[in-house]
ATP synthase subunit b
Amino acid sequence: MSTIILATGPFFSLNNTNFVVLLGFLVFIGILLYAGVPAKITSMLDARAAKIRADLDEAKTLREEAQTLLASYERKQKEVTDQAASIVAAAKADAQAAAAQAKEDLQDTIARRLKAATDQIASAEQHAVKEVKDKAATVAIAAATKVIAEKLGPAESDAMIDAAIKDVSAKLH
């Protein structure tokens, strides 16, 4: 338990603790004023305010630069997006042109192969017709030779053979 001693007696006495505390406080304030502490505190506060103001100005400048940079990047992004869209459009157009060219080339190739096949068929048909005609002529000649040999005498046969040779020679050449 603590005991509190209260000041008793007159106020302006060194026995009065309240007066002694007041004197100590006034001496302390006087020392602070003599040492120029308030001016130093004021100058420190002014310097701090100036530094904060400079920091705010720098932050404002940096913010403006950042906004300018952001606008620049947004503009570049839009340009790149537009370029990408134009590249995609050009690629689609090129692909469509290539597809059309490939389709045209395929149609030309099919037409050429169809014509070649038709020509081969026509050639084979002509060759087959010629073979049939040759075979028919050979058979006819053999049959005629057999009939002539059986029904005609040697003199008539020789005359007909000579006439037939002349006739065939004239038709072949």
User: Anything to note?
Assistant: The chain is about 90% helix and 0% strand. The mean pLDDT is 91. The first helix runs from residue 17 to 34. Helices lie at 17-34, 37-151, 154-172.
